[in-house]
């Protein structure tokens, strides 16, 4: 599959975050006002650039932390509520 060159230039955490953000934005098209989808997608683009910048500066572990931390917290909350 031919991916755009700007996408290939980003590190793995930025790619994962951007891919998830695109999927969420598509799902949001059916449930929230279009303006909110636009705002969320704009935030995703900015955050992806920040994650890519962190990787280029040698802070890929920080980038991974910023990508995974919200999901770890949500998982912990779900496990606590289920108990």
Shape: globular
Helix/strand order, N-terminal first? HHHH
Compute the separation of the termini in Å. 43 Å
Radius of gyration in whole Å, from Cα?
15 Å
Computed structural class: mainly alpha
Helical stretch count? 4
β-strand percent reads under 5%
Let me know the largest β-sheet: none
- Low-pLDDT stretches are none
Strand segment count: 0
Helix content: over 70%
Q: What is the number of independent domains?
A: 1
Query: What value does the average pLDDT take?
Result: 91
Keywords: Membrane, Transmembrane, Transmembrane helix
Transmembrane segments: 12-31, 37-55, 62-80
How would you describe this protein?
- The protein has 83 residues and is mostly helical.
- The chain has one domain.
- 81% of the residues lie in helices and 0% in strands.
- It has 4 helices and no strands.
- It is globular and about 45 Å long.
- The N and C termini lie far apart (43 Å).
- The model has no long low-confidence stretch (mean pLDDT 91).
């Amino acid at each position: 599959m031919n991916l755009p060159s700007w996408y290939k230039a980003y590190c793995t955490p930025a790619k994962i975050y951007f891919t998830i953000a695109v999927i969420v934005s598509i799902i949001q098209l059916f449930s929230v006002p279009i303006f909110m989808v636009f705002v969320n997608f704009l935030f995703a683009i900015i955050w992806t650039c920040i994650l890519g910048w962190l990787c280029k500066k040698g802070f890929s572990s920080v980038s991974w932390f910023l990508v995974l931390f919200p999901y770890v917290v949500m998982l912990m909350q779900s496990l606590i509520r289920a108990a």
